[in-house]
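Trying the structure run again after the queue cleared.
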Amino acid sequence: MARRKKNKIPHQLSSPPKVAEPKPAGKKIKYAPDSDRAKDQFPARICFLAIVILSFLMSFHTLTDTDIFWHLKTGEIIFSTRQIPRADLYSFTAAGKEWIDSQWLFQLIIYLLYRIGGYAGMILFGSGLTALTWLLALKTAFNRQKYFSISLLVLICLLTASTRLKLRPEVLTFFLLTLEIYLLVLHQQGKKFALYPLPALLLLWVNSEGLWPIYFVIFSAFLGEQILGLPQLKLGAYLPSSLSVSSNSSVLRLALGLACSIPVAFLNPHGLRGVIFPAILLREVSQPGSIIGQSIADLQSPFVIFSGFDQASYIALMAFSSLTVLLSILRRKIYPATFLLWAGFLYLSLTAARNAALFALITASLMGRIIAESQSPDGFPFPGRARRLIKFRPWATALLLLFMSGLVFDLAGSRFFLRNLSYSRFGIGALETTYPIRAAQFLKSCCQELGGRVSLRIFPDPGSAGYLIWAGYPEWKVYADPRLEVYGEQLIQAHISALADYQDFQQEDKRYDFDLVMLTPLLAEGSLIKNLQDDPNWVLIYFDGLNVVFLKNQPRFLPLVEKYRIDFKTGYSSPLPRDERGPWLARERLTRGYILFSLGRLELARSEFAQGVQLTPGDLNLNFYLGWTLNMLSRYQEAKPYLEKVAKERPDSILNQFQLARADAVTGQPDRAIEIFERILEKNPQQITACIDLAKVYELTASPRAHQQWQTCWQIYQTDPRQFQDQAAEISRFLNRPGK
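Done. Tokens:
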């Protein structure tokens, strides 16, 4: 029998097609935040471009970093010798000691740029690299429909990082860190090729900056996130949509990429020593009581060293990013790599201000995708209200662009750099008020008078050493410079002590036989300058508004001593900076006045401070020193307005309280003076100067408490006779008066 054929039903007709249910009448259609609306494209592009331009302008300023000139000299040495230094070259205290120069590639790059285009080539390189860094940070997670929130977040990140946007090896770290995140995000989106450049990226990083271990931290965080996205773990509902392509093959590719990167880290001039050097340095600066850690200002909390504007930006960034993380968690969307890196770098930024820029870049690069993938319009919290507020976004965007326009004008006028206390200027160059350019030129002319290439053993402060290396190596050698890891704890402590205590300075001089001392007065103790002036073994031969120079009084320098010895009784010359004005010239006047004040030339110092106050009446440092100098000149009534101005703005300044109380005591307000001194002693019981001044006010008012106060001062002296030896004679004289 013939078998009957069954009628086959086509596969596509095996089940009836689904028919979309009509929406209930009167029900509003849900807002579609990711709809491609043409009206969002133009403002999105403008915001994107504005932030990139701002990042360029924020780094387009005169050189400010104290390390840049020894970096430049090292680049010159590498270029001329075709070798990377492995031992100290620049000092007479650590000569020949191992030097792990992990920044040699950066140094070579900036020297080549300097050869080609001078300071312009260097600064344009740094500004261009900074702009490219923030372009990548924006591009990593930018979303046209959520452009406002993402632009606001990245702008706050940029403002937080602005204090570190200067030419130093970090600019390469910032760029490479952002590029790594960009490539890893591309891989998460299914772009396999994105992993191929990563080993080459690490090779550049290892040879240009010591923060390269961050590469492995970021890579590991993304690998862990990819593993959590595997389907068999069934966590997909809680993870971002970018992990929807996570598979065993993608995890394997990441793991292989990480494994292949490990040997690349050893491709540096120092091999294993170069690999472990960052860990050694981290241990040295982070251990309790570390002198190296205490000597680096940027390792302090941002709440200690940031200016008011920078602190506000940093706090706003913490608040904005924390709210974004919190809302994401409440929506049950977890971004493991983002959360881990955000929390880790937030902690690092709280412990050291220099890490705030890294925290800002991590946040800018990764936090935007949380906003971009949010179901709420523009990533705002409370979707219901956000849909009503979204109509105001054009006005908010206009205000944001207006604010950024104001920043552009602030940058072009250099006011931005005054606010962040860098005192750099918009444009190209190196300022004579920032580096010892004038003093170095003077020393070069002195060496020419002695026959040309004269070797000098120079004792500088840390701020001057780097430029001296650039200007005078190999003839000029320094006691120490900012390469703190080369010198070690013991020598750094000796340097700090020598800057603060003249006996310690004399011991170091006896040990190393200095030829010359160059100091930036605001970085050194005024007592050191005064003691050098009073010591016949040293001769003051030069000073300007940044540096003071003392030459050892010995036979080989006799022609210079006779020609350049400064005698304030017969007049002196001191060069002013060229083409400086306003706050920069006021800062010059402040330092010149401080030098003269330290040397006991009070009337000359008063003139400098007064000219500075005329230039910037609101400068509290100038007002304080002018008031103090007038007190020293017994012009107490004139001093009070300046001291009271400082007291209003800085009520906790003990030094200003001292001077104001002294002026009050002499100008008929002894009760107010007593109140101030008692308040100081209540907070600082060992403050012997306040104790002595209070005793003097009691003497002035014939108070029976005077003798008891002098006895209290003697008890304070006995707690540390060496520290208070200068006050001992005065206290003893009053206690041993007849009839007391």
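Residues 437-564 form one domain. Worth checking whether this holds up in the mutant runs.
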